[in-house]
User: What shape does this take?
Amino acid sequence: MTLKALLFDLDNTLVPEMANYELAFAAACGEAARRHSFDLVQFRTAVFGSANQRWQESETFAYCSGLGIGSPTSLLSDFPGDGPEFVTLREWAPGYRERCWTDALRPLVKDGLVGELATELDTAFRAALRSHGRPYDDALPMLQQVSRSYALAVLTNGPHDVQRAKLRASGLGRFFPTTIASGEIGFGKPDPRFFLTALERLDIRVDEAIAIGDSLERDVVGARNAGLRCIWLNREQRTLPATVVPDHEIVSLSEIPALIAMIAPDMS
Assistant: This one.
């Protein structure tokens, strides 16, 4: 067996998802919170809470759940895609975002300011994502090492405009000429077709790749169902349930080079 490629999850594997959303939100809304004297954290909770409720009530929620697209990601995407569901999403999203922001602002500022400020903060939050996407500290050194010997790909659930923006903001995009997002191909992890699509694009066999991710349900189960070996990134050292068995378990990405050298010594 020759190992040729490493297939990485993105959110909560290479980059922290919610922490980066919170950084972008603070950058976008901090000045307005000071100007209007409201608590930034409480405001963020209100915006994200409204977004989550309205997202779950939307007619495309079930479809998007199958792609792993959730909230607050839904506040940030233009929903590019050719399917009828994405046409509906593009028509629906501007009003959805406006309602989420105005819901949270209405108790905090004068009525005459709500609409203008909602538009301002919506635009600022979407822009801030492009510069607030720090990676985990263990991601860059690991990628610098393994990229010398293996093809690398990102396999991520989410709308591909947002997921690629995260990769660019993190500074890790240069390691991943192959990036596959569920919103682009119409199905998401744990669907085994997701992983098989990556193998097809990389022109490799199933035994020539290893998948790495933090989610037992999406990354590990999906990889195993596709016939791939998998590495579970268990940063929080959660207890492994008996029903899911990854091939390997690590608590930091820094363990990957040594683990890969043990698994595939011919390529180390």
